[in-house]
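Design a sequence for this backbone.
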């Protein structure tokens, strides 16, 4: 009998050479991996907004201007957050 053990621990009949299986893309993702991926998206969005806010507040205190730099860098942070979301959506579509 010509069988080989594949990655999942199951035996497959036929060719015993180490070749990638055709249905690797359709393998279900683990829940822990998905949870880690989506929580990292949330953290990157929150961090980009808070970093922009922190820089804006620091510059407003340094130059003694009230909302100018805070609003500008908050907008930059929100833009970076949307950029991270779009990049994550594209990456998840490729998975």
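Sequence:
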């Amino acid at each position: 009998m010509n069988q080989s053990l594949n990655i999942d621990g199951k035996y497959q009949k036929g060719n015993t050479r180490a070749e990638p299986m055709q249905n690797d893309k359709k393998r279900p993702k683990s829940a822990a991996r998905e949870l880690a991926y989506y929580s990292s998206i949330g953290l990157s969005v929150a961090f980009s907004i808070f970093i922009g806010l922190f820089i804006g507040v620091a510059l407003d205190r340094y130059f003694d201007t009230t909302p100018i730099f805070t609003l500008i860098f908050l907008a930059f942070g929100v833009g970076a957050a949307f950029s991270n979301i779009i990049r994550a959506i594209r990456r998840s579509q490729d998975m």
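The mean pLDDT is 82.
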